């Protein structure tokens, strides 16, 4: 198994365990906040990449 996959599995297990504890206690843990921030950063990065590629492709089209 690759190191990246092992890391992802570790963080996923921590996230789900943290979420389960949060349900019992009714509070948000630091792990949940960090995972949410990471997912938001990933979404922003993907959106910016797609926007840049579409804009670059649109600028190369000859419309005349």
Plain-language structure description:
By secondary structure, the protein is mostly helical. It has one domain (3-60). 84% of the residues lie in helices and 0% in strands. The protein is built from two helices and no strands. The protein has helices at 3-25, 30-60.
CA-atom Rg in angstroms: 19 Å
Outline the low-pLDDT stretches: none
How large is the count of helical segments? 2
Instruction: Specify the helix fraction band.
Output: over 70%
Number of β-strand runs: 0
Secondary-structure element order, N to C? HH
Major beta sheet, specifics? Answer: none
Average pLDDT over all residues? 85
Label the overall shape. Answer: elongated
**Whole-number tally of structural domains:** 1
**SS-based structural class?**
mainly alpha
Quick overview:
The chain has 64 residues and is an all-alpha fold. It contains two helices and no strands. The protein is elongated and about 65 Å long.
Which key features would you list for this structure?
single chain, about 60 residues, mainly alpha, about 0% strand, elongated
Give the arrangement of secondary structure elements:
Blueprint: H1 3-25, H2 30-60
